[in-house]
Structures are given as C-alpha cells and as structure tokens.
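Input record (one chain):
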Amino acid sequence: MNEIRDKTPVMARVLDEVCGVDFAGFTAGDVRAALETRRDAARYLSKRDFAALLSVAALPMLDEIAAAARAETRRQFGNNVSLFTPLYIANWCENQCAYCGFNSTNRIVRNVLSLDEIKAELDAIAATGLRDVLLLTGESRVKSPPEYIADAVSAAVERFTSVGLEVYPLDTGEYALMRERGADYVCVYQETYDPGIYAEVHHAGPKRDFARRFESQERALRAGIRGVSFGALLGLADYRRDALATGLHAWYLQRGFPQSDFSFSAPRLRPHAGSGRIDLNGVGERQLLQVMCVYRLFMPQAGISISTRERPAFRDAVTSICATRISAGVSVAIGGHATDTKTEGQFDISDPRSVNEVETALRGRGLQPVYSDYIRM
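The corresponding structure, as predicted from the sequence alone:
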C-alpha cells in the first residue's frame, strides 16, 4: 500500500495490520479454532481470528461459518430485521469516481430537490409505514451545502423516528449541526482501504483525500452522532483485505466510543451510467456471504445492512443468517417516491420490491419486520 502523510493512530494501525496479513497462510485448523472461540458467548474473536475467517482456507468452510453467524445473530437480535429506505435528494457531484453513476464527467440529468419536494418524498415514504430513512446526496458542497442537508434532516425528523445521512465527509461542527437537527446515524464508505487503488479509482475531486474520508466516522462520533456505519465497495480491490480493514476500522473506534452504535454494509460493484463491463474481482455471492458472516462473528452486536445491489433471493437468504437491516421500496434516482425528476440512478438495483413485498418475504422466513426500534425523546 502507498504511504499516506499524517496518518492518524487508528488509520496507521489499520493499514499497517492489514498489510501484514497473509490470507493464504491460515489453515483449516485456524478457522475451526476461531469458530470454537465464538461458540463461547463470553469470548470474542481476536484480530487474528477475524483474519482467519476471511482467509482462503475459510471459504470451503462457509457452511460452518454461516451456521455460527446465524446462531450469533439470533442470540443478539432474535428474529428482528429492520426496514429502511434511502432518499436521494441531490446528485450533483464534484468527484470523478470510476465506479459511480454520479461521476461529474457523466452526462446525466442532475437535480437538487427543493425543501417542498423533499417533504413530499418523505410523506410518500412515510405512507408505506417505514420509520427509518437514509438521506443521500452527491458530493457537492456548492449544490447541496451543509445547511441544505440540515434542513432536509429537520423535515425528516418530523416524519421518521430514525434519520441517517450518507453525504460527503463533514467537519466535526457540521456533524454537530446534523445531530442538533436530529440526525441519528452517519454512513461513510471508504470504498477501498488500499490507498494505491483508492487513488486509481478516484480520478479527481475532494474524494481523493483518503485520510479525510477515513476519519469521517470519528468526527461524527465526536460530534455526538449516535451511530456510524462502515463499508468497502467489494470488487474494487482484494475483498479480504478490504473486509479486514473495514472491520478493524470499526473495532478500533468502538473502543473509543463504546456507547455508540456501529454497523456494516457490504455493497458490491454494480453497473451504472457511464460504466462498461463490471469486473467484480472474484467477489461472488459466496465471498459476499463470507464477509457478512465474519462481520457478525467479529462484532456480534453490530448491525449489518444488505443492499438492493443484490438479487432478492440472496437478500432474503442473508436476513436468515446475518443481516439485520434491509432496504425496501428503493429508488436510487433523485426523488422517485413522489417526484419523478427523470434522473438516472446512482447504480442499477437488483431488487425493486416494495415495502409490503419485502415484509411478506421476511415473514415467510419466520422473521419479524421492524419499522421502528428507536423512540425519539
């Protein structure tokens, strides 16, 4: 991995430890030892155990790993699965990311919803019964400045019990503003923790600053945001190293902020506006399931989301194993619930099911759909 100037202590630990792991050097015995550790509710996986479960030797043992993850999920969450939906309110972006439909060089229709349009979208989503919404923008401080995002949060809080943000990295004071308006959690995905590949896929724009993005969750937590989410876009680089780095990033911050909520997402590359052939770098559904199960075993109380990037059958299956949050009634265009802005989506989704259809699928697996697990005081 390339050197990065001014590494923070957490960043230095994560990058250095990931570099030192030989995923081909673990044995089936190492994998079984890690699984045996987690079968004891009083014992937690070591960092070495975490790496072993992501190793080459672990993939043939995926059935055993999945069984352990299923047992851990039921122990921590019962049969509850939370439902939410994203709301894209702006797609103007200053970045040139090779994997994203919002790439500033793509000739797509751009739009920023007005506050009245945002309220109409929120009303349409709330009418489905959902009480958890994730607000998203492209990365443009000019077109969607912090105050605009804060106003959207205020509107969402009037209608939802849980409001999340997936926007460009903010300063600590700006995250504090979002908290004051009612934001509950922040999602920031590093995309890849390999600095060399990170530089290759971020051709231009503020997102090229690896360190600023890496430190986003810590700034949000210092500002008092209740929860943060972590993830890498699997397929950009070696999925094992990215998954290990993602877990270690969350694990180190959890030690500094033990009362906060932590969660993971494991999105894979998808076709999008301006994309050609998508190379997933060997990350099939088995590899994706491995990553999600190992997140569950490494940080048992963390939430795990499953994206509409995946097909319905796979999404349904992982809710029975390790996922605790599932999106439903999704539009990845701007608006799309009450306002048709004629914009392309950020990526092509694989699961277009409505909220009712996802709920029915969950109940059919003996799971309990949860629309709200938080009371706003």
